[in-house]
Hints:
Number of helices: 0
Largest sheet: 6 strands, antiparallel
CATH class: Mainly Beta
Shape: globular
Bound molecules: FE2/S2 (inorganic) cluster
Strand content: 35-45%
Amino acid sequence: MAESGFVKVAEVGEISPGDMKVVEVGEDQILLVNVEGNIHACDDICSHAYASLSEGDLNGDEIECPLHGSAFNIITGEALTPPAEDSIRVFEVRIEGQDVLVGPAKG
Length: 107
Ligand code: FES
């Protein structure tokens, strides 16, 4: 574990723009997404029921849950369409050299 709770989870070259990758940090399953060159981190597990958002469709900064179709904003975590009502968590991301580090949940 790096300083202040940030932990290396991937390398920048593993996630091209429009790509995503699931990593595990402690007990959390976290989805890394490259949105137009910027890597964001959010919960991989949907807030509605148990589904991996990484198996859904990515469209810019939105991802659609594969199970019931709720869309989430990857950058804010906001649930955009029902049936999900609760946001997913989004996490701090830091790039150090080629390393992608994930930190605490935002907010
Ligand atoms: S599990 Fe994701 S919308 Fe139901």
